Amino acid sequence: MERWTPYLDMQFSFDRPGSLAQAGVLDSAASHVMGSAIGHYRAHTVRAHLQYFDCDLQFPEPLRIHKVLPDSLCLVHMLSGQWQHRVDGQLNHYLTGKTYALGLSEHMEAFDQLPADSHARMAGLRVGADYLRELAEEDPHLQSLIGLLDDGMKFTDFERCPALGRLLQQLYHSPYHGTLKRLHQESLSLAVLVELATHLGNRPLAPAPTVRGQRDLAHEARRLLDLNLVDPPGSLALARQLGVGETTLRRAFAKVFGQSMLQYLRQQRMELARTLLLQRKWQVAQIAYRLGYANPANFSNAYKAYHGHPPGME
Length: 314
Known about the structure:
It comes from Pseudomonas machongensis. Keywords: DNA-binding, Transcription, Transcription regulation. By secondary structure, the protein is an alpha+beta fold. Helices cover 38% and strands 29% of the residues. A hairpin with a 2-residue loop joins β7 and β8. α3 packs antiparallel against α4, α5 crosses α7 and α6 packs across α7.
């Protein structure tokens, strides 16, 4: 059976320059890779014809990748750095903080090229064209997805749909492991497709129903906070999303969990920080940026205040 993507399910973490060709990111029969990298890459098929991937890579030397991409859709959110490639004669740029879609209606050659000392940190989904067509046949509300697979190549900037970027960020910062992580990846990956179809079809999502009962309200608020640890909503925005008053939400959360939402967020971020530090895959500054701190020094101070020692001691 023909592969629907040349990208293989795999992961690596290099603490010194490692050959990308030897890492086995791409099917060697459909690609040619030149260059090395420092950092991590991971790709995992969450269900048939739907692959999640992310990376945080530094390229100490020029990077060149020649690959053949089948008909498919690739969604990418650039968390930092940049990327660029040429497909069907068109040079496409991926810039920090934006979400893009590359849709191909047929097999095409793509040429990635980045200069030495460049950096790319991104999260994305690769979706097989056949899977999109099956979804469109099952539900006409998903027909809009096929529009991203116009004749040839279509490169789209989704700057006006920030929800896509937030969902991909949640995938990147998933705090789970094992089966929970697999379920988390699958649910959020499908949520990306739902949000994309909704945006393209100009069909606004129905407002969240009012949550009744302090316990249910507090647990729903905690769930939403857990999904947005890096960029959490304010208490007013969260209350509006849940259809209650801000004071009502604050009181319910404090009564059920014995702490304010701000205290809970601080606790969860610091516990996640410790987990990441103990994995010894990233430097303190990298973890600080992953958790939304603009200044690593502020992260170190917050970590010491919570755990009683600086992050470097982990």
